[in-house]
Design goal:
Blueprint (H helix, E strand, L loop, with lengths): L5 H7 L5 E5 L6 H8 L7 E9 L2 E8 L2 E3 L1 H8 L9 H8 L17 E4 L7 E5 L5 E6 H7 L3 E3 L2 E3 L1
Amino acid sequence: MHDETPAIRALAATDLRYEVVRTVAANSVEESAGLQGIEVGHLLRTIVVRLGEGDYVFVLVPGGRQIDWPKLRGHLGVKRLSLPNAERARAVTGYERGAITPFGSREPWPVVADAGIAVLGRVAIGGGARGVNLHVDAADLLAALDADVADITSPA
């Protein structure tokens, strides 16, 4: 298809079972969840976090939660983390903010996922473009990404 994203092409080459759910671009996590027919807590954000020059990780955060920076720094064993600006995030992932996903990224950065994700069942993760979402089983997703699963978030 001409409208496939790098994420969808990357997934097509795997054994991971997924469903592509297309919606209009949402203005909030609540709107996105409603458009997709999924609970807010099952909507995963992929946040690219800078560890150092040229060194990044993807952090998967469920809707309604936020990165707990002291927990994430402790888990990664670093004293400092930062968020790249939108231009840099696009340069290192190939995706614009709001559409970042580990699948089909320019570099296969490691994935750190919040521990709560493992028990969620069906979740939605970005599909590489605004309004393109991938619905997958959470445990299968974590396995496919070889995610480092840890308690790294707190309620928003």
